[in-house]
Amino acid sequence: xxxxxxxxxxxAKVIVTALAVSMIPxxxxxxxxxxxxxxxxxxxxxxxxxxxxxxxxxxxxxxxxKRTTQPGLISTVLGTLGPTSTRAATAGTNGGGAxxxxxxxxxxxxxxxxxxxAWLGEAYAVQAGNLASHGSSYVMHPVxxxxxxxxxxxxxxxxxxxxxxEPIPLAFLDDVLATTKPVLWMAHNIWQLTARAPSFxxxxxxNWVQYDTGAATTVRYENTDLGRNPLATPSGLMIxxxxxxxxxxxxxxATGSAAGPINWATKAKNLTYIGEIPFSYVxxxxxxxxxxxxxxxxxxxxxxDRKRALVRxxxxxxxxxxxxxxxxxxxxxxxxIPFSIAAYPRYENPYGVENNGVAESYTLAERPDVISALRYxxxxxxxxxxxxxxxxxxxxxxxxxxxxxxxxxxxTAHVNENDSVIYDGPxxxxxxxxxxxxxxxxxxxxxxxxxxxxxxxxxPHYAASAVDxxxxxxxxxxxxxxxxxxxxxxxxxxxxxxxxxxxxxxxQYFPYLVRDIYGSVVAPEAVxxxxxxxxxxxxxxxxxxxxxxxxxxxxxxxxxxxxxxHPYLGTAYLRDTVQGxxxxxxxxxxxxxxxxx
Length: 597
Ligand SMILES: [Zn+2]
Hints:
- Residues 46-67, 82-102 are annotated as: Disordered.
- The protein is built from 13 helices and 26 strands.
- Residues 1-42 and 62-91 have low confidence and may be disordered.
- The protein is globular, with a radius of gyration of 24 Å.
- By secondary structure, the protein is α/β, with parallel strands linked by helices.
- The strands form seven sheets. A nine-stranded mixed sheet has the order 2-1-3-4-11-10-9-6-7, covered by helices on one side. Strands 12, 13, 16, 24, 25 and 26 form a six-stranded parallel sheet that branches. A three-stranded mixed sheet has the order 19-23-22.
- It folds into two domains: 103-299, Rossmann fold; 308-595, Glycoside hydrolase/deacetylase (TIM Barrel).
- 24% of the residues lie in helices and 22% in strands.
- Strand 24, helix 11 and strand 25 (560-565) form a beta-alpha-beta unit.
- Bound molecules: zinc ion.
- Residues 17, 314-315, 387, 391, 460 line the site of zinc ion.
- Zinc ion binds next to strand 12.
């Protein structure tokens, strides 16, 4: 039996998993001094936003002097999808819809790729693409290579303006102004669109005003308050003015700025505008959820709005306490709640932590009591996932103590002087062959204990290198995860064709089922876990906090309230969380049900 201190420490490390999203070097212009970040360091996998120049966008761009009479009409008839597009993502692995996506839909995602923040443009496109896959297949590429009429091969368009004054092809502006298909435009360069259409305000019933950098830290969407991290505010939120409420409306409103309420999103006809990049500094219950909902309304306007929940029992290894596992299974079984079990089949403790300095190493096959508890869980609705092989890496302190269940297995990390977990890069010797060997070893260890190879993979602490993710895709095709992604991996929008840059990493949680850029179907986990103690600069989270996050998640059509739970916490917190989610209107299903689409 482990001591209390040990468990607290373990819980802490898991917070890394909870927010695992990560990091990125923070642009100098917006480095967060409070966290003591240095350029190139990455904390919490959170994407920043590029700084917005301290100028007012021009209403009469000099680029747009040769305006013709009317934008040329383009076809708004949906043609044959797929083959008609010359930009099918054949080179990359991305672009497929998740199970449940509508095959008659196809989304075009355009992004900026010029200037010093070009890599962020690609990162934002990856995030938009991952989300769009919930509703449809998609193609993404830089807006600069947009071809006139290209929109006719799609059912909807998403443009992410991350580079101030990116030279947008006039053909794209004209096609946006002419189409009746849903268009979602984010952040910069809306001024290029309005400059192209002198009658924009009359036609759409709104216009942009200027960027606000005040403390607009709450976004109200569908009668729910969502968060907006103060770190995001210096990048600006475009104020819009609705001049004709009969045409335009504001689906979401930001408050907190001295400028007063600001239309966070503005909608008129088929055009929806979000006044910022909604992928920066994302946390639980973030305005990112509103964006996720607006994106899936473009990729599949007919998406069903189910309210389903998932629970995953976390970090179950050969060192687990069989009594705790049985108690969890008994409770969930009585509640008729299917669940999954994130299991690793080999325990390592190279430095003998909590064991008088004597190293330990054993497999599931050597722990018959744990095997029988796992069987007990399976018989009561449990689905075993492969949560790595050892959930630690060799004898590395990575970043806590080298003990299984605590450390990273497929990525390296350290805790810096400010007690933040910093992601460092792939593990020494990382390769496709190494990763395959790891999966094979785990499969063998499960087999020796009498278990079939799990069908779903979950990387420990939600972290692995790009090549590891590719091997996971080849072996499983399914993850239960918050994804970790890398700048430069998707040149021109073709993911897998570029060299991942491990100093430009970013994580993403999903509110619904997606197929991510590695090609894998990814079951969502957007609610996090119970953490009774604060850790690594993350606050404690109790069942009420998880329930609040789940309530906020309800703004997302088809959002899944998915959380994970450590069996050493006992059943009281689990009961409170389950009951809270049920009271919020969610129905628990199995991960297999969600993954079926
Ligand atoms: Zn874990």
